[in-house]
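Fill in residues.
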C-alpha cells in the first residue's frame, strides 16, 4: 500500500513539475528547446498557437530533421511578421505532410513561396508608404502570386503603376495601387493567365483609369465571368478598355454597354491609334488585345 501511494505521489509531482516548467502547455511535447523556441516565435508573430503546434507535431511525426522543422517555422514566422497570410503556409505544410511529401521537397517549396512573399513586401514598399496599407498591399500581392501571377508580370505592373503615379497625389497613388492589384488578383483567381491579367490592368492604367474605375472593372468582370469563360473574357475586356470604354457603362451593362460613353484616349498609350497589339504583348486585330501569348 505504501509503495502504491508513493508511486502515485511521484507521478503527481512529475506532472505538476512538467506543467510548471512550461506555461504554454503543449510546448512541453516538443523535445528540442530550439523547436519549442521556434514555436513561441511563430505565436508571437501572430500565427495561431493551435496551428503552430499542429504543424510542428505533424513534421516531427513525418520524420523531419530538427533543422528542417526550425527552417519551416522560421519562414512562417517571417511571413507573419510581414503581415502576410502565414496560415496559408501552415495549411500547405499540413497538406504536404498529409500527402507524404518528402521533407526536403516541402522545405524547398515553402522557401520558394517565402521568397515570393519577401518580394511582395519589397515591391509594396515602392508603391505605398503608409505602414498598414503597405501590409495590406503585400498581402494582396502574395495572394495574387499564390493564384498564379508571375514575377515578370508583377514587375511590368509595378512599372506602369509608378509611371501612372507621377501626376497623382500620394493618397490616390496608394488607392490606385491597391485596387489595381485587387483587380489583378481576382483575375488570377478566376484562372486568367498571369500575362493576360497584367496586360488588362496595364491597359486600364494607360487609359488613365482611376481607383473608382478599377473597382468598377473588377465588379463588372466578376459578373460577366459567370456567363463567359474568364480566359476568353479577359481579351474582350482588354479590347474594350483600350478602345476607351467607360467603366461606369461596363459596371452597369457589362461588355454590352460599351457603346455609350467613351473615355478620351490617353496620349501615353503606346498602342493607340487603332493598331493591333502584336509583338511581345500578344496578337489581335483592329485595336484589340486578343489574349495572345508571351513574346520571349
Amino acid at each position: 500500500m505504501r509503495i502504491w501511494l508513493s508511486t502515485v505521489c511521484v507521478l503527481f509531482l512529475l506532472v505538476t513539475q512538467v506543467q510548471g516548467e512550461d506555461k504554454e502547455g503543449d510546448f512541453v511535447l516538443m523535445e528540442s528547446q530550439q523547436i519549442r523556441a521556434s514555436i513561441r516565435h511563430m505565436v508571437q508573430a501572430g500565427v495561431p498557437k493551435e496551428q503552430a503546434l499542429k504543424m510542428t507535431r505533424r513534421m516531427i511525426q513525418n520524420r523531419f530533421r530538427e533543422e528542417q522543422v526550425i527552417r519551416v517555422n522560421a519562414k512562417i514566422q517571417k511571413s507573419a511578421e510581414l503581415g502576410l497570410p502565414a496560415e496559408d503556409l501552415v495549411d500547405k505544410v499540413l497538406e504536404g505532410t498529409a500527402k507524404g511529401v518528402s521533407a526536403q521537397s516541402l522545405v524547398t517549396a515553402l522557401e520558394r513561396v517565402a521568397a515570393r512573399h519577401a518580394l511582395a513586401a519589397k515591391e509594396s514598399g515602392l508603391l505605398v508608404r503608409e505602414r498598414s496599407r503597405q501590409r495590406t498591399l503585400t498581402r494582396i500581392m502574395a495572394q495574387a502570386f499564390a493564384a498564379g501571377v508571375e514575377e515578370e508580370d508583377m514587375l511590368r505592373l509595378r512599372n506602369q503603376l509608378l509611371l501612372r503615379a507621377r501626376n497623382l497625389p500620394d493618397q490616390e497613388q496608394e488607392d490606385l495601387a491597391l485596387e489595381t492589384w485587387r483587380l489583378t488578383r481576382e483575375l488570377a483567381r478566376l484562372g486568367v493567365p498571369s500575362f493576360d491579367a497584367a496586360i488588362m490592368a496595364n491597359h486600364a492604367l494607360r487609359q488613365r483609369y482611376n481607383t473608382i474605375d478599377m473597382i468598377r472593372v473588377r465588379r463588372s468582370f466578376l459578373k460577366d465571368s459567370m456567363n463567359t469563360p474568364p480566359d476568353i473574357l479577359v481579351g474582350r475586356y482588354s479590347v474594350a478598355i483600350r478602345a476607351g470604354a467607360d467603366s461606369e457603362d461596363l459596371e452597369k451593362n457589362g461588355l454590352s454597354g460599351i457603346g455609350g460613353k467613351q473615355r478620351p484616349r490617353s496620349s501615353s498609350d503606346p498602342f493607340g491609334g487603332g493598331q493591333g497589339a502584336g509583338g511581345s504583348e500578344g496578337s489581335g486585330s483592329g485595336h484589340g488585345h486578343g489574349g495572345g501569348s508571351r513574346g520571349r
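DSSP finds 13 helices and no strands in the chain.
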